[in-house]
Amino acid sequence: MIAYTARVRLLRSPTDPRWIDVALAELDRTLQDHAHCEKKAAASALKLVADHPERAGMVRALAKLAQEELQHFLGVLAELGRRGTALPPDDGDPYAQALLRHVRGGPRPEDRLVDRLLVAALIEARSCERLWLLAGALPEARLRELYARLAQSEAGHERLFVDLAREVDAAADARLEVLAEEEARVVAALPLLPRIH
């Protein structure tokens, strides 16, 4: 069994242990949701690229991240295909939507950018945690290995978003503390469903 080797450092609360039973009981739905998460992660990275083309280093890093997320999307789609399961329409992600409501507006565009990057970091951190949980509990060795690889990649994405936020604003860590507390409240308020978030 693959252990969840390191508690994701950004998260202020762990996932409810009952989530893994819910996710495994309706694994096809969990995989479908995961595919949508990977698709949206790629789209979000490209949206940041489109909105900030002047930040050359960030553009390169996020373009590479989007490419990785699309590879993950294809990997989960392939698994759905093996299981004879189609990808349904995307119902949206209440978790991500709730976090994005905390992104600042105001006169400083840097504040909005920092918050978008930190929200992305928190989403990646929660994804990483839950993918590790799946990697440790899935019944098939092939799936366990897939999810362990995906979780490791998500951990790298989490770090990238935090590093990018720090490059924009040296005070990003203080803002991260605020948003991490909000993330914990959002997770606590959501029902346990066969979803990655």
TrEMBL record:
Gene Ontology terms: biological process: tRNA modification
Gene Ontology molecular function terms on file: tRNA 2-(methylsulfanyl)-N(6)-isopentenyladenosine(37) hydroxylase activity
SUPFAM superfamilies, per database record: Ferritin-like (SSF47240)
Pfam families, per the entry: MiaE
PANTHER family: TRNA 2-(METHYLSULFANYL)-N(6)-ISOPENTENYLADENOSINE(37) HYDROXYLASE, TRNA-(MS[2]IO[6]A)-HYDROXYLASE
Name of this protein: tRNA-hydroxylase
